[in-house]
Amino acid sequence: MTLPFARGLGNQLPVYVKTARNAEIWDVEGRRYIDFGSGIAVLNTGHLHPKVQAAVAQQLDAFSHTCLMVTPYGVAVELAEKLNRLAPGPTPKKAIFVTTGAEAVENCIKIARAHTGRAGVIAFGGGFHGRTFMAMALTGKVVPYKAGFGPFPAEVYHAPFPIAYHGVSVQDSLDALEHIFKYDIEPARVAAIIIEPVMGEGGFYIAPPEFLQALRKLCDLHGIVLVVDEIQTGFARTGKMFAIEHSGIEPDLMTMAKSLAGGFPLAAVVGKASIMDAPAAVASAEPTPVRRSPARRPWPCWRSSRKSISVRVPKQSVRS
Ligand SMILES: Cc1ncc(COP(=O)(O)O)c(C=O)c1O
Predict the structure, then answer these.
(1) Is residue 112 within 8 Å of residue 148, measured between CB atoms?
(2) Is residue 174 in contact with ligand 1, taking CB distance under 6 Å?
């Protein structure tokens, strides 16, 4: 049978779902399965948890969408406050909401770059951070995620993830970071280091707490933003609300997605308030001047860099 999906969208199991409840799935032929897949770490509270169902029904009675940036609403404020309280560490936190995990990762890099004014980002071999271009660049696995899709955004470097089973010690990984600082990019140009506290797609390897503690020290030493990708590990999957809590360190920024919304497309970045506010601070500190062209009216394009750009709009689309 030819499926209507393109080959890039692989199906792991030939099981077509009819209904699902808690940890079980029933297929269209009436067979019953235990769902160990859990939508790839999305269903920490199971399929259709009654509280999730009730919240969704209540929301659909009120409204489905207004766009938080256009006309905000109370439940988003409440959720942000709750996540800010849950995020580990004593530093005051702020949050943003986006739609997918990859989008949360992308925004972490934008925030870290705006905060530091630096470009470089270091990630780890075997790590997975998503399928958009920066997230793919950060992902440390060529096949099946990156092969054939380059070029990727520049200034991304990879160090080996410490995995004793593969003969890579904590010291080996720390030495590799020093090598990157020596051979590729000076630490003063590195905006962020991003790591999964437990590598997911790369094989379920736990980052040793002493490694995460050493990363925290290294980032503090060089003014680098430490980003912890909790998209797969968050929401009690490792026995604590967030996996990073096992190491006792406070990340600068955290990504959240998947089980945050139990199957609905919602993701977040939660982090130290002073860092989270960096993009807006850059934009409002230096309002971008609009360059005027005497011949035609320019169309201002706002961006967070120091220079302004103006794009000429074709004559017929300029309203008089
Ligand atoms: C650790 C990690 N980061 C990022 C992502 C990307 O999330 P999404 O698929 O929602 O874009 C995933 C998805 O599996 C992930 O496991």
Answers:
(1) no
(2) no
CB 192 within 8 A of CB 224: yes
Token couple for 64: 């489905």
Measured distance CA(215)–CA(244) in Å, rounded: 12
Of all protein residues, the one whose alpha carbon is nearest to atom 13 of ligand 1 is 130
Do residue 202 and residue 259 come from a single domain?
yes
pLDDT, one tens digit per residue, over 147-186 is: 999 999 999 999 999 999 999 999 999 999 999 999 999 9
157 lines ligand 1 (CB under 6 A): no
Question: Does ligand 1 come within 6 angstroms of the Cβ of 233?
Answer: no
Query: What are the phi and psi torsion angles at 138 (to 5°)?
Result: -75, -30
For residue 133, the CA-to-ligand 1 centroid distance in Å is 13
Could you tell me which residues are beta bridge partners of residue 300? 310
Residue 263 Cα to ligand 1 midpoint, Å, equals 13
How many domains is the chain partitioned into structurally? Answer: 2
In contact, 153 and 137? CB cutoff 8 Å: yes
Ligand 1 atom 16: the closest Cα is on which residue?
A: 232
CATH code of 32's domain:
3.90.1150.10
Judge if 208 and 245 occupy the same domain: yes
**Structure-token pair, residue 263:** 């199957």
Is 25 part of any domain? Answer: yes
Question: What's the order of all strands across the beta sheet hosting 24-27?
Answer: 17-21, 24-27, 32-34
The tokens describing 174, both together, are 């720390």
- Three-state DSSP class for residue 70: coil
pLDDT in tens, 221-256: 999 999 999 999 999 999 999 999 999 999 999 999
